[in-house]
Amino acid sequence: MLPTRVFLYMSIALLTALSSSVSLAQTASSSSAYPDKPVRLIITVPPGGASDFVARTLSERFGKELGTTILVENKAGANGTIASALVARAAPDGYTLLQSGISTHGIGPYFYESLPYAPFKDLVSIGAIAEFPIILAVNAQLPVQSVKDLIALAKTKQLSFASAGTGSAPHLSGELFKTETNVNMVHVPYKGSAPAVVDVASGQVDMMFDGIPALAPHIKSGKLRPIAAVSLKRNSQMQDLPTFTELGYPSMIASVWYGLMAPAGTPQAIIDKVNAAMNKTLAVPELQKKLEDGGAIVMPGNPKEFEAFYLKDYARWGEVIKKAGISTKQ
After folding, report:
1. Model confidence over 141-151: pLDDT tens digits?
2. Cα–Cα nearest to 255, from 234, 236, 231
3. Which of 44, 110, 118, 265 shows its CA 20 to 30 Å from the CA of 167?
4. pLDDT of the residue at 25
5. Sign of torsion, CA 151 155 158 164?
6. How far is CA 35 from the centre of its chain?
7. What are the backbone angles phi and psi of residue 161, rounded to the nearest 5°?
8. Beta-carbon neighbour count of residue 277 at 10 Å?
């Protein structure tokens, strides 16, 4: 007969092993059955703008590839931190996903130090979706036709620039423009690109840096005038638009990018399944064309590639913020 203590230890070990086996079996079963209900895709801005355009362009086909319905939900505010917190606190079961971006994992973390979640620990990578090179557009009534004209005007009067929110790529592009050209402008933040571009188009704010989807309707209507692209190469949708690099400002490079993330602890099998569905969606020619017509560049890939991408972008913007002396205090 085994001593009582040895018997007790063996019993505990056996129960622990059985518990782990049951847990693993339940996880495997849950992953194989996924998805068996609609999936919520949380985006960080109000309806309208680049992020909303991407989500709603892809949601139907993405749902078809995943085998369920994708419910796109707009949770705007605090430059994406409200949406990110919601997903970070959600059950790690693949039914609540975040369309993350440069505001949540590229620039935003520098501006929001006291967050109710850890951006790089509580949310995990699924895969990149697309990026939009940024352009600069001014209100059509502003008496400028070029960057040179704009700089000259900014040295004689106080100008303002709108953005999708403090810590967003459009905001940092504007701040970088100020330091690179030695001009002073007032930053006017909004809850997303859509309300911001409306005020620039109406003349309440002078200019705005953003992706083409947010600006294109007002450029076509004649209310906005594009004057430069914040990219290495000219935008395929606006070939006549010079880049800041061409104009002598090589540091003026930025893009608005988007990807998919899930709560930490989401089973790898589910992450891989969602990643595969998104990559198949991005490979559909008509959807590629629709995104490209909107100024986007598709970015299919795997979770590790996306993680490496946003960590590199985060480090880059940290250097820009430091070099430009931009205050990150809220």
Report:
1. 999 999 999 99
2. 231
3. 265
4. 44
5. positive
6. 24
7. -135, 140
8. 24
CATH of domain 39-131+256-324: 3.40.190.150
List for the chain the helix, strand, coil content (%; round to 5): 45, 20, 35
Q: What is the mean pLDDT of the chain?
A: 88
In this prediction, residues 163-187 reach a mean pLDDT of 89
The CATH 3.40.190.150 portion of the chain extends over 39-131+256-324
Three-state DSSP state, 311: helix
CA distances from 112 to 176, 183, 252, 266, 279 (A): 19, 26, 24, 25, 31
Tokens describing residue 87: 């997903």
Residue 27 has pLDDT above 50, yes or no: no
Helical segments of the chain, H only: 4-33, 49-66, 81-88, 102-105, 108-111, 147-154, 169-181, 193-202, 212-220, 268-282, 285-293, 303-324
- Using the 8-state DSSP alphabet, how is residue 243 labeled? B
Torsion sign over Cα 316, 322, 325, 330: positive
Which residues of the chain form CATH 3.40.190.10?
133-230
Pair type for strands 39-43 and 70-74: parallel
Condensed to tens digits (0 to 9), the pLDDT of residues 238-250 reads: 889 999 999 999 9
CATH number of 133-230: 3.40.190.10
In the predicted model, is pLDDT for residue 11 greater than 70? Answer: no
Q: Of 133 and 26, which is predicted with more confidence? A: 133
Quick one: tokens of 190? 């909004």
Q: In the block, which residue shows the tokens 């194989």?
A: 32
